[in-house]
Structures are given as structure tokens and as C-alpha cells.
Amino acid sequence: MANNGAKDPLLSGSLDATQKTKQQLLNKRRLLRSRSAPHAELVPTETNCNESIPRTASIFQNLHPSFKRMAIYLAVYLGVGALIFYLVRNQIKGQKTDGILDALYFTIVTMTTVGYGDLVPNSHLAKLLACAFVFSGMALIGLIVSKAADYLVEKQELLLVKAMRMHQKIGSTEILREVETNKTRYKLFLVFSLLLILIIVGTIFLVTVEKLDVIDAFYCVCSTITTLGYGDQSFSTQAGRIFAVFWILTGTITLAQLFVYIAELNTEIRQKELVKWVLTRKVTNLDLEAADLDEDGTVGAAEFVIYKLKEMGKISQEDISLVMQEFEQLDVDDSGTLSTSDITLAQSS
């Protein structure tokens, strides 16, 4: 009995140590498994490696509300602009082909700030209308670049990655992970490819339809998509202006989107360099003091993660304070933890 009694404390201590180790591992697993709310379009369905990804069936299926909204804005702008400039067509001078087509063409040229000079307002009213439409058009292009164009590019990212990994047996989860990791690079590649295609198509069209030589055609393409618009070369035929209505708008927006992605990629590279520096530098006692949020003399995994994220610039103290306020509001029983009963009580109050 004495021997058994002597062994009890040792056995108890061993069990406590084992339970503590298990609890630490459990906490670590919980931290690793924690994630933010999944993006509505990035939640993969259970598929095998050979199955196609449902969301890439067509870029026009299940259109995002922002894309639909931008399409409506653009249609209204072009419709109103074409109607107004058609009504004042006698107050616009220059090379004319067809009344409605010229009005729509003039609206596009004004909106994109290309301004060839082949059609120009010739009255006070026409000039004031042109001023109004150029500013509203620039604002609309800004919205299109930030919303709709970016959405269309993102819809094709999975198709690009899947095509690049055609001979590799990888599932949808791996593809989604790669897209998320190299998102900006894929966007830049897609937009650059589209811009190159638009330049080639525009040059060929100007050579074959507008009867320009190759150098003049390429020169006209470059001056158009950069909105330089010297005016010495432009679309003067009816067929050319029908083509220009679609091509000019697409080309100028694509070039603007390319510059956006170049800036975004540069920012992303600098962010990754900062993250690498934060993760590789040595942790000091000052870091531990700053990371000790509850000031209990020790730094837990959650505190350390929050501190490192703050150093990386991914979150701020204000973000943390706002999250903590929400936590305190949900923690009805002031236990320091959240449970189903807390959520129920918080929602009912």
C-alpha cells in the first residue's frame, strides 16, 4: 500500500504532463485549422482529378452583380451619348459616314479621351456636352477597370492554370491554391496577352480596311490605345468606325488594367519582401513584451501570430480593437470564451 501510495504522485505527474502536451498539440492544430470565411467563388466542390471545375464553364454564366451593374452603366452612357450627339450632329464638324454610327463613335472617342480630331464639336452647346461626357466617361472607365474588367480576368484564371497543368494530375483544390498564390502574375499575363492580340488585330484591320501601310497602322493603334490621338491617322470609313466602337473601348481599358496589375504586382513583391524580413529576423525581449497582449508575462501562439501580422502590415491595432469589441459583445457571460449559448443570447438581446 505504501509503495502504491508512493507511486501515485509520480503517475499523476506523468499523466498531467501527457495531458498538457496533448492540449498544446490540440491548440496548435486548432490554430492551424482556423481560417477566414471562404470566398463565395473560391469554395471548391468535391471533385476528382479528372473532373472539370464547375465555375469556369463560361464567363457569362452566373455573372457577378458588379459586372452586371457596370454593363448597365456602360450601356446607358453609350446610349444617351449616341442619342445626344446624334441630335446635335449638325453642330459637329469633320469626316462623317453615318449619323448614328458617327454619334456612337464620337461618344467612344470622347469617353476614352482619344480625341482624334476627325470629328470635333463646332458650337457652344456641343462643346459643353463634350466636356460633360469626357469627365463622366473617365469616371465610368475607372469603375470598369476596378470592377468589371478585374472580374472577367479572375474568371479566366482557373482556365489558364488548368491549361498549364494539363499533363499533371492535380485536383481542383491544388489549382485554387496556385491561383491564390500567383493571382496577380496570372492576371498580368492574361491582360498582356489580350493587349497583344488587340494590337495585332487592330493593325491588321487598319491595313486591310483603312488601307494604311503597316507602320502607319501600328502607329495609329499605339496612339489610340494610349489615348494619345494625334489625329493624323484615324478610322475614317463606315466599317472602320463600326470596328472602332468596340476595339477602342476594349483596347484602352485593357491597357489601363495592365498598368493597374503592374503596380499591384510591384506592391505584392514588396509585401512579400517585408513578410520574409519579419519572419527571418531574430525575436528579441522587446518583441515579446510588445506581443504580450494580456500582460501575463508569457506569449501564446495567438498573441505571437497577431504580433507578426501587425509587423507585416496585414492588420493594425485598430483592426484588433474592433475585433475585440465584437468579441466582448458576444461574450455575454464574460467567461473569456464564446459558446453557442453566448451567440444565442447575444442575438436575442
From TrEMBL:
GO biological process: intracellular potassium ion homeostasis; potassium ion transmembrane transport
Coiled coil: none
A GO term, aspect molecular function: potassium ion leak channel activity
Transmembrane regions: 70-88, 100-119, 125-145, 188-209, 242-263
Membrane topology: Multi-pass membrane protein
Domain Potassium channel: 74-153, 194-266
Compartments (UniProt record): Vacuole membrane
Key words of the record: Calcium, Ion channel, Ion transport, Membrane, Metal-binding, Potassium, Potassium channel, Potassium transport, Repeat, Transmembrane, Transmembrane helix, Transport, Vacuole
InterPro entries for this protein: 2pore_dom_K_chnl, EF-hand-dom_pair, EF_Hand_1_Ca_BS, K_chnl_dom
GO CC term (a single one): plant-type vacuole membrane
Family, per entry: Belongs to the two pore domain potassium channel (TC 1.A.1.7) family.
Name of the protein in its database record: Potassium channel domain-containing protein
Organism expressing this protein natively: Glycine max
